[in-house]
UniProtKB/TrEMBL annotation:
Organism: Rhodococcus spelaei
Keywords: Calcium, Hydrolase, Metal-binding
Stated family: Belongs to the sulfatase family.
Positions of the Sulfatase N-terminal domain: 33-455
Name of the protein this chain belongs to: Arylsulfatase
PROSITE patterns, per database record: SULFATASE_1
A GO term for molecular function: hydrolase activity
């Protein structure tokens, strides 16, 4: 709201009195704290050393020893939804984030567009006098706004952040990330060979932002949301950090569960007598088979070696990133800012079971709707964590790192929603090294920060009446008894068809796995737990308390209607090709022009996959108008990475189209000699004649130069996506991690000639006259 001008205006400035205060921004209250929120991904409580886990987190340990560790802090079970609650303080469906941005659909609770009635905390803090920064993972920009030409009203700067540096989607390659700065995409600053890793880069950028503020406005507090790629797949780490954990997981995930439960009790995270839940706790037919855990004793020696190595890589990734957070904390201590910085160090959901029972060396196969090949995976064991892999551990480690709870990420059992959190603020918290058992949720973070900062959330913002905050402040717990009562009364849960509700110490959960394809929600069996007593949800009391269960089920439905939870979606995207096809059909797709043609140009930013011409599961034609010389060489177009994609390029006098099917060797390549100098049209046509077992497209691929067919072979194409996000369509170059192993260098930029345009045609008409076809496309440009 504009300030009142309190000066005096006369005809002559000499007789007038100015009032600068009317035009200057608000200042934060005297002594207001800085705020640092560190939000990891995909991490169960039993992973980290402050909770008794084997993964050493020296920075988090230091903060826990001088702050508070929360044993009953909860999230939504998935990343985008949880992050949306950190943005606004409202439940995830109210934010339109029932699921991740990449799988949003056209329903009120599912569209990934945060409504104006849910203004962000960053806007409120910035207006109150804080500098605001967001570094790292975003995952809250709607999928339809990822492109360079899209509106930026839902990008971080428009959500109240002064600066942003990180990646827009749900994950990225930590060696070759897809980066954005403020409102535009950028190239990574240097290569892995020069020492690059995303976690290090993000810490560098965060430190720069804080220092920039402190050297110009030393009294101004700041709020930094630091969101590393860790611990989301792909699990990438320097070898020296991976080596720290060699042999530490050789006893297997079942032994780890037994060991870590004792440690969690010893540290006071869990009460004495907490029972360990079964490794596979759900009845057959109530969850997706891809979430099953293979008993360690049934693995052969090669599998045990690979599974152990996958856990070692994950651990190294986590500790390496903690070391980067440590650089920020060390700077705060050296500069005298640490005592009055409220630090919240936590994770956004439980450990991830998305690696399937056997793990994966290329998680992209999940997004392509294609199963892993364990035999191929075993050949890559020594390369896990390196740029050669896009790895994810098996479900067994997800269960282990979620000890003692049932299941893991995506499930509304504790394994999916009960996560680690440490809070450190010496100026505001007297207690040190204590555990807090009050029940809280990610919606409570915004109210907590606002109360600590002395800021009130407005009833209206930019003229829009605001939805009340869904959460409650946790600040009362800072100096409360460890077992004191919680200020929270009710919290519903829903994720991909999995449902639960907590109310005054009791919790009900539907026995219905996420993405299970079961449907029949009205026929689900529900379980009932006295959560205050049975923290692991090990003892179902539904038969003993049918009235309490009925009360909880009714309360869940009431909350669901109030929070825009319906309709429920449990489509099984892995192992059920029909559901996968339905799911893909519901996602956002770039509207196809009436011609079926998309035109792209050189000298432009890469186009995100969900907004590029869709070549998945369809017939397509690609026409490149080029002006060649004897020195022409490089990429004409590329889309994807070494883990899946396709590319058209010229090398050593040969033009080649390469289709890399989800990183599974060998690549399909079709080649011909480069034509003589001058203007030419190089064309590719794929005709989908049928589908394979996993709905992959199968048919002939033809290569054309001008109006002559110069090659043909049968290939298969991906139904889903080359990647979850990033690795978009590039004209005249490849992104840093190349599609084809034939490239002699990263990017392999086109030179020695000119690319005029590249046309992607996904209309159904046949490839007849390539020159006439291109002319028609140009006439509609």
């Amino acid at each position: 709201m504009a300030k009142e001008f309190k000066g005096d205006i006369k005809l002559d400035v000499r007789d007038s009195v100015s009032d600068w205060d009317a035009f200057l921004p608000e200042k934060a209250p005297q002594g207001a704290p800085n705020v640092l929120v560190v939000l990891y991904d995909d991490t169960g409580q039993a992973s980290w050393s402050p909770y008794g886990g084997r993964i050493n987190m020296p920075t988090m340990d230091k903060l826990a020893q001088n702050g508070l560790t929360y044993s009953q802090w909860h999230t939504t079970a998935l990343c985008s939804p949880t992050r949306s609650t950190f943005l606004t303080g409202r439940n995830h469906h109210l934010n339109g984030f029932a699921t991740i941005s990449e799988s949003s659909t056209g329903f009120p609770g599912y569209n990934s567009h945060i409504p104006p009635s849910n203004a962000t905390m960053a806007n409120v803090l910035r207006d109150a006098g804080w500098s605001t920064f967001w570094v790292g993972k975003n995952h809250n920009v709607p999928i339809d706004e990822w492109t360079a030409g899209a509106s930026k009203k839902n990008w971080p700067l428009a959500q109240g952040y002064d600066r942003f540096y990180g990646f827009i989607g749900g994950e990225t390659n930590n060696w070759y990330p897809s980066l954005a700065e403020d409102n535009h995409y950028i190239e990574q600053p240097y290569s892995p060979e020069e020492g690059y890793h995303l976690s290090k880069d993000l810490a560098d950028q965060a430190l720069k932002m804080i220092r920039d503020v402190k050297q110009t406005e030393p009294e101004k507090p700041w709020y930094l949301w630091f969101c590393p790629g860790a611990n989301h797949a792909p699990h990438h780490a320097p070898e020296e950090y991976i080596a720290k954990y060699k042999g530490m997981f050789d006893d297997g995930y079942e032994a780890y569960r037994e060991w870590v439960l004792g440690r969690m009790v010893e540290k006071g995270i869990l009460p004495e007598g907490t029972d360990l839940t079964p490794l596979n706790p759900m009845p057959e037919g109530t969850f997706s088979p891809t979430d099953e855990v293979r008993p360690w004793a049934e693995l052969n020696d090669e599998e045990k070696r690979m599974f152990s190595r996958m856990a070692e890589v994950f651990a190294g990734f986590s500790e390496y990133t903690d070391a980067q957070v440590g650089r920020i904390v060390d700077y705060l201590e050296e500069s005298g800012q640490l005592d009055n910085t409220l630090i919240i160090y936590c994770a956004d959901n439980g450990a991830s079971g998305e690696g399937s029972p056997n793990g994966s060396v290329n998680e992209g196969k999940i997004f392509g709707g294609y199963p892993d090949d364990e035999e191929q995976n075993l050949t890559m064991v020594d390369k896990l964590g390196s740029p050669d892999t896009y790895n994810h551990y098996p479900t067994g480690w997800a269960a282990a790192f979620s000890t003692p709870y049932k299941m893991f990420k995506r499930y509304t059992y504790q394994g999916g929603v009960c996560d680690p959190m440490v809070i450190h603020w010496p100026a505001g918290i007297k207690a040190k090294g204590e555990v807090r058992h009050q029940y809280h949720h990610s919606t409570d973070i915004v109210p907590t920060i606002l109360e600590a900062c002395g800021v009130t959330f407005p009833d209206t913002y930019n003229g829009v009446e605001q939805t009340p905050l869904s959460g409650v402040s946790m600040k009362y717990s800072f100096d409360a008894p460890a077992d004191g009562p919680t200020a929270k009364e009710t919290q519903y849960y829903e994720m991909l068809g999995s449902r639960g509700i907590w109310h005054r110490g009791w919790k009900a959960v539907a026995v219905h796995g996420p993405v299970s394809g079961i449907s029949n929600f009205d026929k689900d069996v529900w379980e009932l737990y006295h959560a205050d007593v049975d923290r692991a949800e090990a003892h179902d009391l539904a038969a003993d308390h049918p009235d309490k269960l009925a009360e909880m089920q009714a309360l869940w439905l009431e909350e669901a209607k109030a929070n825009k939870v319906l309709p429920l979606n449990d489509l099984q995207i892995i192992g059920n090709p029909k559901d996968y096809e339905t799911f893909v059909g519901m996602e956002f797709h770039q509207p196809v022009p009436p011609s079926g043609q998309f035109v792209y140009y050189p000298g432009t930013s890469e186009v995100p996959e969900r907004s590029a011409a869709n070549v998945h599961g369809v017939s397509y034609k690609i026409l490149a108008e080029v002006d060649l010389t004897p020195d022409s060489q490089g990429v004409i177009f590329a889309h994807g990475s070494r883990f899946g994609g396709h590319s058209l390029f010229i090398k050593d006098g040969v033009v080649t189209y390469a289709y890399n099917f989800l990183g599974i060797p060998p690549e399909d390549r079709i080649s011909a000699p480069v034509p003589t100098s001058g203007k030419h049209i190089i064309g590719v046509e794929f005709v989908k004649e049928g589908m394979g077992q996993y709905r992959e497209g199968i048919g002939p691929l033809k290569l054309y130069i001008d109006d002559q067919q110069v090659g043909e072979q049968k290939i298969r194409t991906v139904l889903g996506h080359f990647s979850l996000c990033g690795e978009g369509l590039c004209i005249g170059y490849d992104s840093a991690d190349p599609v084809s192993s034939a490239y002699p260098e990263p990017r392999f930029e086109f030179r020695g000639g000119e690319i005029t345009k590249v046309v992607f045609d996904i209309a159904d008409d046949a490839y007849v006259d390539v020159e006439a076809h291109l002319a028609a496309a140009m006439s509609r440009d």
